Amino acid sequence: MFVVFSSGEEYLFWLLIQFLTGSSVVLAGINIAWMGRRYWLLNVIVMVSAIWNGFNITIVVYTTGFVIFSIFSILLIVAALIFIVRNSYLSSDVTDISERERFARKVSYTVNVLFGVMIAGAALFFSFAFMVFGGVSSILLIPAGAIVAWLIFFRWQMRWIRVSPVSAMVGGLVFLLAVVGGPFLVMYVM
């Protein structure tokens, strides 16, 4: 760990994060009995891995093997999103509800995960822009904070969808607008 932070080589830091996100997904899959009771945590771990793979696509643009790496990363992201929606839906005890309610839950889980993808995509775009124009600095905490806020909100959202799927979608949209519009509002006020 000391070598990563003292060597000045960025690829070691990237490799460390890649190793940690991949290992956390594998370890969560190995310990499925414990993770089964905390399905929201499994979704968050897989979403963090998908976000990191999305970030990887943006930073390896000018390397050799970019096309193959991008296709592989996109497949990982799509598989992660499908997993999150299916894991969320199947963990919500859908055996004793009507077909209409089941469909509403599926749509609500899918829409709320797409809201998270939009927040993560916007945050990654702004992170990349901040790094290009200003280098690595504390300003990068703003987009990272948006992703962390959504991951925390997602845990609460999972419970809310079981009670009222439609209002959970509206709440997710309001949260999306607050996270994306909040920094602009702060800049406008100041």
From TrEMBL:
Name of this protein = Uncharacterized protein
What does the UniProt keyword field contain? Answer: Membrane, Transmembrane, Transmembrane helix
Look up the domain of life of the source.
Bacteria
What does UniProt list as this organism's lineage? Bacteria, Bacillati, Bacillota, Bacilli, Bacillales
Q: Which chain regions cross the lipid bilayer? A: 12-33, 40-60, 66-86, 107-126, 132-154, 166-189
